[in-house]
Design brief:
By secondary structure, the chain is mostly beta strands. 0% of the residues lie in helices and 48% in strands.
Length: 122
C-alpha cells in the first residue's frame, strides 16, 4: 500500500532553518512526481514545490523561491524540503504528495501524506 509520511516539523525562530522529510512506501520515487504543499491556519492549501519523477525539473512557489530547496534520495525513498530564512508567514502544516503522471499545484495529486506542522515564531 502506498504511503507517504512527513517528518521534521517543529518550532523555529524567524530566520532559522528546518529540513522536512517525506518517506514513501509502496512506490519508487523515480516513477512519481513529488510535490510539497502547505496549509496555513484559516487558509487553503497551496503548492510549495513540484519535482518531476526524474528530479531534473523542480518548480517553486514565488513565496519560497531562493529560500526553500527540494531534493530526493531514491535509494532511501525519501524526499526533502530544506527551508531556510524562515518567516512567520511560513507557519503551516506541510504535506508531501505523489502523482504517477506529473506534479501540479493543485489537489489533483494522487496520494497525500498526513502532514507535519511547522511553526515560525520568536
Amino acid at each position: 500500500q502506498l504511503q507517504l509520511v512527513e517528518s521534521g516539523g517543529g518550532l523555529v525562530q524567524p530566520g532559522g532553518s528546518l529540513r522536512l522529510s517525506c518517506t514513501a512506501s509502496g512506490l519508487s520515487l523515480d516513477r512519481y512526481a513529488i510535490g510539497w504543499f502547505r496549509q496555513a491556519p484559516g487558509k487553503e492549501r497551496e503548492g510549495v514545490s513540484c519535482m518531476s519523477a526524474s528530479g531534473r525539473s523542480i518548480t517553486y512557489a514565488d513565496s519560497v523561491k531562493g529560500r526553500f530547496t527540494a531534493s530526493k534520495d531514491n535509494a532511501k525513498i525519501t524526499v526533502y524540503l530544506q527551508m531556510n530564512s524562515l518567516k512567520p508567514e511560513d507557519t503551516a502544516v506541510y504535506y508531501c504528495a505523489a502523482d504517477k503522471d506529473y506534479c501540479s499545484f493543485s489537489e489533483a495529486m494522487d496520494h497525500w501524506g498526513k502532514g507535519t506542522l511547522v511553526t515560525v515564531s520568536s
